[in-house]
Amino acid sequence: MSISIDTVRIGKKYILKNYGEVHRFEVLSRTGEENFEVKDMDTLEKYSIKDLYEYGRGKDYLLDELK
Description:
single chain; mainly beta; SH3 type barrels; five-stranded antiparallel sheet; 0% helix
């Protein structure tokens, strides 16, 4: 079951699956009401979390905290 974007916390690590793509990232800072600056754990690239679901949420959408 997916968690809400409202429960995302700075410093925590998450996994996002959407339209067949999988992203593992750490939240660095909050940049808006429902937007965060994140760092990809695989490539170390920094980007906005909204970039990951800007085209909508697919049937496979899943946002969950990594343990």
